[in-house]
Design brief:
The chain is 6% helix and 29% strand. The protein contains 1 helix and 7 strands. A hairpin with a 2-residue loop joins strand 5 and strand 6.
């Protein structure tokens, strides 16, 4: 399917490593007076934003980033997001190997 993005002011949001579109990216100005959400093709409508706005791009799996509208225009309405790296603490699993009756086990695994 081919989309013509010249009809309205739209932005295409992609992953900066795979270049795949990112859906469900929240796009808003810092005052939260204008908002948009990317679709499954990574496209969001920016027609409600002003050219003086700063736009914030936020997704749970990616780093939040903000650009001035003029910077997005200069980038030909393409925005690339960097995945978040999440550091997890170590996990300890303790198990025993002796037999127990099923009634004694609180949960089955």
């Amino acid at each position: 399917m081919v989309y013509d993005r010249s009809v309205a002011q739209t932005v295409l949001v992609r992953d900066n490593n795979s270049f795949r579109p990112v859906d469900n990216v929240a796009v808003y100005n810092p005052a939260h007076t204008h908002t948009a959400l990317t679709n499954v093709y990574g496209i969001a409508d920016l027609s409600s934003f002003r050219e003086t706005d700063t736009l914030v791009f936020q997704h749970t799996a990616y780093e939040t980033i903000s650009y001035k509208y003029s910077e997005i225009t200069a980038a030909e309405f393409n925005v690339y997001l960097q995945k978040k790296s999440i550091s997890l603490d170590e996990i300890i699993i303790s198990a025993t190997r002796f037999e127990q009756d099923a009634e004694e086990l609180p949960n089955r695994i």
